[in-house]
């Protein structure tokens, strides 16, 4: 898989994770949150749990209260649920 394909794949998975846990609509706005989102994207691009993520998302079509355990962005995404 080339770099652009991986970037697109991971962006899609990250978006699905945010939608699945209901954090997409609770993401904070502003410069600090933009930096946090960029850092989250880098963690997702470098994550080696892609297949587990894809399976977890497939197992939660109706949503979930928390992100997948082992997600490198779980703490950040969970913090967006607390706001």
Tell me what the structure shows:
By secondary structure, the protein is mainly α. The protein has one domain. It has helices at 3-21, 31-46, 50-59, 74-82. The radius of gyration is 12 Å and the shape is globular.
List the helices and strands and how they pair.
Elements: H1 3-21, H2 31-46, H3 50-59, H4 74-82
Helix pairs in contact: 1-3
**Beta-strand percent range:** under 5%
* Overall pLDDT metric: 91
CA-CA gap between termini: 37 Å
What's the helix count?
4
User: What's the number of structural domains?
Assistant: 1
List its traits.
4 helices, 83 residues, single chain
Short description:
It is built from four helices and no strands.
